[in-house]
Design brief:
It is a single chain. By secondary structure, the chain is of the alpha/beta class. It folds into two domains: 2-107, Tetrapyrrole methylase, N-terminal domain (Cobalt-precorrin-4 Transmethylase, domain 1, 3-Layer(aba) Sandwich), CATH 3.40.1010; 112-217, Methyltransferase, Cobalt-precorrin-4 Transmethylase, Domain 2, CATH 3.30.950.10. It has helices at residues 17-25, 34-43, 58-70, 91-100, 112-120, 137-145, 163-174, 197-204, and strands spanning 2-5, 28-31, 50-52, 75-78, 104-107, 127-131, 153-158, 178-183, 191-196, 213-217. Helix 3 runs parallel beside helix 4, helix 6 (137-145) packs across helix 7 and helix 7 runs antiparallel to helix 8. The radius of gyration is 19 Å and the shape is elongated.
């Protein structure tokens, strides 16, 4: 059986009892980064063999893991933080497991998408998660333009190295909409900066940007 286990996005206290029970009982933990997952397992005094599963070995590793599950092994798939397969490796393994007839279940838990959304102060009743945008500005603006007139709140992930330029492109495509930038969610120095896109461009340009950011932007003609 394949267990899709959500892990904390920052605060280790957010791990669920079901997640801990599952990690203790599976035969193998498949993880995006075995060092990061190893720290998590050690913190909760769980000793389990691990296998790395990332974008560079997905196909080969997926075949191997599916083979183990067909032999009767139980496997937990985790990412570095949050729910596996959401902007992280895992989709290929899920598809391979389903094709092979392997039973799958999910152990839900923290996710930056929902946490940032509810903290943003923007409409939460309908939203679109777009993941990581393209790295180059020209491709990124085309990517953003798809949702230019979408009424739904938009959610993106972005790295600290491209955050300011991303916000500038958002301003150019969407206009000066209300938005929020979230960082270090659930951690001691959790940060949520709210304002218009032009204000966020100005503020972000002066910030010490580290870690992954979640950007939440109001939909077209949102009723705020």
């Amino acid at each position: 059986m394949l267990y899709l286990v959500a892990t904390p996005i920052g605060n280790l206290g957010d791990i669920t009892l079901r997640a801990l029970e599952t990690l203790k009982n599976v035969d193998l933990v498949v993880s995006e980064d075995t060092r990061t997952t190893g720290f998590l397992l050690k913190h909760f005094e769980i000793k389990k063999p691990q296998m790395a599963f990332h974008e560079y070995n997905e196909e080969k590793a997926a075949d191997r893991v599916v083979g183990m599950m067909l032999e009767g092994k139980n496997v937990a798939l985790v990412s570095d933080a949050g729910s596996p397969s959401v902007s992280d490796p895992g989709y290929r393994l899920v598809r391979a497991a389903l094709k092979a007839g392997v039973e799958i279940t999910a152990i839900p838990g923290p996710t930056a998408v929902i946490t940032a959304l509810v903290l943003s102060g923007l409409p939460v009743h309908s939203f679109t998660f777009r993941g990581f945008p393209p790295r180059k500005s020209s491709a990124r603006r085309k990517f953003l333009a798809v949702d230019e007139q979408s009424p739904h709140t938009l959610i993106f992930y972005e790295s600290p190295f491209r955050l300011v330029e991303f916000l500038k492109d958002c301003l150019a495509v969407y206009g000066d909409r209300p938005a929020a930038v979230a960082n270090d969610l659930t951690k001691k120095f959790e940060l949520v900066v709210r304002g218009t896109l032009s204000e966020l461009v100005e503020k972000s340009a002066t910030m010490d940007l580290r870690g992954e950011f979640t950007v939440v932007i109001a939909g077209f003609e949102a009723n705020l």
